[in-house]
Design goal:
- This protein starts with 12 loop residues before the first strand and ends with a strand.
- It has 124 residues and is mainly beta.
- Strands 1, 3, 4, 5, 7 and 8 form a six-stranded mixed β-sheet that branches.
- It has a domain of 84 residues.
- It is elongated.
Length: 124
């Protein structure tokens, strides 16, 4: 994708010395008729699984994709894509099992979409 190569992880087991990287394209976001820009927020929330239960562990800062943060020439009609992603170092994650919850909020359409992935972190 451009100068960047995206290589999918075929396993959900990660080493503490690596990072968990995500990338996604967001489709069909509603646009503001005055500036033709979407108003979307993406949140990444991590939960740790312990003793058969799950509790909140950490989160990243929400990503805002809107008229203030997108390039001035951003235009869906011109084929531009709405992208989001994070690279989270796993060094601070204790060994164990986790769930990443990705929440996409389209503020103009008043709609929310959530996706999740389970993964584990080991010391080696």
């Amino acid at each position: 994708m451009g100068a960047m190569e995206i290589v999918p992880a075929f396993s959900t087991k990660f080493n503490k010395q690596t990072e968990l990287s995500t990338f996604m394209l967001i489709y069909n976001a509603k646009t503001d008729p005055t500036n033709n820009k979407p108003d979307v927020t993406v949140e990444y929330n991590f939960y740790v699984k312990q003793s058969g239960a799950e509790k909140f562990f950490n989160k990243t800062n929400p990503q805002a994709l809107n008229a203030q943060t997108l390039p001035a020439n951003f235009d869906f009609a011109a084929g531009h894509q709405l992208q989001s992603g994070q690279a989270v170092p796993l060094a601070s994650f204790p060994e164990g099992d986790y769930r990443l919850e990705i929440k996409v909020v389209d503020k103009l359409a008043s709609k929310t979409l959530m996706r999740e992935i389970n993964f584990s972190v080991s010391g080696s």
